[in-house]
Each structure stands twice: as C-alpha cells, then as structure tokens.
Automatic annotation (TrEMBL):
Pfam families: ABC1 (PF03109)
Annotated GO MF terms: ATP binding; protein kinase activity
Gene3D superfamilies named among the record's database cross-references: Transferase(Phosphotransferase) domain 1 (1.10.510.10)
PROSITE patterns hit by this protein: PROTEIN_KINASE_DOM (PS50011)
Top-rank taxon: Eukaryota
Annotated protein name in UniProt: Protein kinase domain-containing protein
Domain Protein kinase: 86-417
Protein family (similarity comment): Belongs to the protein kinase superfamily. ADCK protein kinase family.
Amino acid sequence: MYDCLVGRDKEVVPFRARQLRNLLCDLGPSFIKAGQVLANRPDIIREDYMNELCILQDDVPPFPNQVAFKIIEEELGQPLEALFSKISSRTIAAASLGQVYRATLRSSGEDVAIKVLRPQIEPIIYRDLFLFRTLASFLNGISIQKLGCNAELIVDEFGEKLLEELDYTLEARNIEDFLENFKGDPTVKIPLVYKNLSGSRVLVMEWIDGIRCTDPQAIKNAGIDVNGFLTVGVSAALRQLLEFGLFHGDPHPGNIFAMRDGRIAYVDFGNVAVLSQQNKQILIDAVVHAVNEDYAEMANDFTRLGFLASGTDVSPIIPALEAIWQNSAGKGLSDFNFRSVTGQFNKLVYNYPIRIPERFSLVIRSLLTQEGICFTLKPDFKFLEVAYPYVAKRLLTDPNPALRERLIQVLFKDGVFQWKRLENLIVLAKENVAKMSSNPAIQVKNGPISRSWQTVSKLDLTDTIKDGARLVLFDEGIRRQLLLALTEDSKLHVEELVDVYKLVEDDINIPAVAMEVVQDFPNVVRDFLLSWSNSVLSDR
C-alpha cells in the first residue's frame, strides 16, 4: 500500500514478490502449501506475484531418522528390523508434510518406498488454517465483490485438500483407484501399495526404479524414445482428466518417472482431484465449442463449471474469450501452448468476477506442469499436436452416448455437414494410434493387456459405423441433414464420401462389421418398430 501511495509500486514488484515467497517459507508447511496454491490462482493474485510463487518449493530440511523410524514402528506395531532387512540412512526426498526412505522387505526381498508423516504437524496445520479462516472473514466483502464468493470458501477448499494429505490411508486408496483405472494399460506404471504395512502416518509402496523427468539427458542415454514417451504421458494425462475424472493433482518432475521400457510412472498420490461425470462432459463441450468457435457457449461453459456465479451476465466475457482464442489458435498448432493461453486467461480472470474452483486450479496446474516437462525433454514439443489426436480418437471411437452427441456437434456446423472436419478427425485419430503403437512398452509383456490395447495398432471404427447407421435410421433430423450434406449446392458429394472411405478402408474389417450387423439385426428391427409406433402415437 505504501508503494502505491508513493508511486513506486511497479518498480518494486519483483522485490516485494521475493519478500512474500521468503516469508511463506519461513512461516512453515501450511504457508508453503498456501503459496503453491496461490501460484495457480490468477483469480486471487496478480500474475507477477504468481510467477515468483511458482519458484516456491516444498523441499525442506528432513527431520531426524530416529524420529521417523520411531513413527514407523509405532504405526506398524513391530520393530524396524522385523519388517525391513535394509533401510536407507538418508531420506530420498523431504517435503513440507513428510519424507521418503528406500527399504527392502525382509519377507520378500522387494524394494519399497516408505513415506513418513512429519511429527506433530497436525496441530500446526489446524492452527494455521484457523488463522487463515479468521483473516479471510475480514476479506469477505472484497472477495464477494471481486470473485463472487466469500474468502472463507476459498480457505475451506484449500484446507480440505491439505487435511486430506495428512492421512496416508486416503493416499493408499487413491493409489488403488489409479491402479484400477490403468489396469491393462501397458504404457502406464502405478506403484503397488502394501496396505498391511501402511497406516495414517506411514505409507509403504513399491519402489519405482525409473529416471526422473528432471534429467532429460539420462532419459536419452537410456535409449528411451522421447517422442513416444511424451505421447504416452500426454495421453495418460488426458485419460485421467476426460475419461476417469480422477487425476494426479501434483505431477511435477519429481513425481513422474520414465521407465526404461518406455512407460510413464507416477508417484505421490496425496494430492488428487475428482471431476464429476457432468464436469467431464462440460469440458468436452468446451473443446467442441472451441473447435466450432462458439464463444457464447464457451462463456456459458464457465458458468456451468462454477467459474462464474449463476445468473452472471456473460456478454462482456465473450469478446475477451474470442480475442484469447483467436490470438492463440490463429498461430496454428505449431505455436499453440497452454502457458501463453493461460497468461492471457489470467488477465481475464483478474479483471472479471471469475473464481477458479480448487479442482480446476489443480487441472490448470497439472496441464501447465506436464507441458513444462514436455518442453524440458523436447524444447520444440507441441502439446496440442498430441492432445488433439487423442481427443479426435475419443470422439470417433468412444461408444459413450454423450461423446457420440459431441461428435455430431463437431461434424455439423450451422446445419451443414463438415466433410473436411471429418477427414481431419480421422487423420488425427490415426496419428494418435500410430504414435501409441510405436511405443516399446506396448510390445513388452508387463502383465495382462486389455482388449483395447491389443488392437491399438488400428483405428477401430466398427462401433462408430454401427451407431452412425442406427442414428441415420432412427433420427429423422440427422437423416435429413446427411442427405442435404450429400446433395449440397445441387450436386452429389460422392467425391467427399470416397475420400473419407479411402482414409478408413485399411482400418475397417468389412466381414466383421457385416457379422455384427447381422447379429444386431433383431435389436435394430425392434428399436425401429418402437420408434415408428412412438411417432404414430405422438401424431395422434
């Protein structure tokens, strides 16, 4: 405030930002975590302070081994020597909430990672959260005016996530959920958790013998195909976000490893976020609206996702969204990156009553962090050149009715069928399949591989063709639009149809499609009769 009064606020911003970062470090674990959260909240602080807080690390001096080993024995109810034949004398990693050791199980000889919670940390966290909330109560008026919500709600969201990280039984459950989600996926490694050797303050997991993503030279020296590894990483991130709705909230370079067979491995599942089925569908809607350049609907997506209070007038935001997207997408995929878009989006968020819900601040941080890892390993990497093909493949092959509906929205713009867009989707989807199938991890037998991965070398459009045929048969509106598309401008568009067929002819097993159609024929007849009878009854 004094800097503003004397007119020197701009020139001293870097100094004040460093002061804030150092102060948070000195105040302890809760404040370090708060700083990390603020580094991803453009709705709360300005960008120059955010950039400084991004440097904030939770690497802190470890607490003594004797204390850590005593906690392990208390939690597991046995002497250390009875459980482990060997344990590292130094911590492998130390953070604000806990630290990690490497050990060997006496019973099986397997190497494991032991995560131990800092002693007496819970009272400190509760005290700090009480201070945060008390302070927030004095800021409610400003917060409601600027963000459309009270400051206490923001503290509550932060506190809820922080308290979850203090209970390692929750982290063990998160690991099991990730294992279930990626079961049968040969490109992703999730460590096993030893629940019989874990408790609320101690977590024992399988040791991941991989290469940290902070060491790009070591990855290259190990003979790992960087392009294939990055494709696997981006696809795994998008699966978490758009398919599972459960994603890693803190995928910094120390939590992601490159396995020597090309797989990507994740560790540290204390900070995860969940997206509801509705939120996943809205995110896919937002992608569709971006493709269709429907900025009014993009603004409405913000309200549906909770960025804007219900009833907020979105009309002032529409031109800003259009300017951001046109400026970014207009450069093409080669120059598009999330950091540049986020920088422009941050200004929009700071100038409008937009509040970023905690789970979406984690989404933004997750995407930015993973894009940063990609740039570290390959400076000219294009995130969207991998992300777009994945989304295209999902739209074309996922049997989910909601995604089928989004595919129709993409293919029809203003009632006109977009032949070129269909061709682009097929080309992008085949590109995703080609990149994924070239990864060595798919050829390595790391366990049972699911059917979807056994056929990864081809773009399987069998279900899409069947669903498309059923849609044309039963939906009069779609049937009319498709006929118009084939006879647009008073000419028969056979050439476009042939071009599309040439793109997919190698990926369609005609006899298999015919067999499935024959097997499904009784259901088709039944549905047709039901549809016909319903239309007759509605006419009456």
